[in-house]
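ok here's GNAT family N-acetyltransferase:
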Amino acid sequence: MSPLAAREATEADAELLLAWRNDPRTREASRSSGVIALADHLRWLRGVLASPDRLLLVVSDDGGPVGTVRFDRERPGEWEVSITLAPASRGRGLSRAVLTLGERVLIEREDVRAILAAVHQDNAASAALFERAGYVESAPAEDGFRWLRKTRG
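and the structure:
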């Protein structure tokens, strides 16, 4: 496996990110499972890129982009994480490395006391990923999603 690198997303990533977001397996695991139109996605992406309370990273290896990880500040020191692997990158054992790299970038830039993850209750692979990364159950399941939390310190 070649080393991974993370960079902040830009508006030039819009079509790539939208294709990953609209992939059927990605939509199954999302809180919003509908297909997103390009105009709506661009509006969302511009808002994310302009917000000081959000960090959207594109993670690549030597072959190009393999996934994305997004952090949304929920309250001071607490961030929610969302990770998406490119459909072509699934099954390569990259999810843990993408998550770890994203966490490292966030911690270098921001005050982080805890990171939260909402995991669809039917998504055993994501639950296992976060649990292996040190996240623990933090709240009862709600609307079909489990809440996991990783505390720093």
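+1. Residues 5-151 form a domain with the Aminopeptidase fold (CATH 3.40.630.30).
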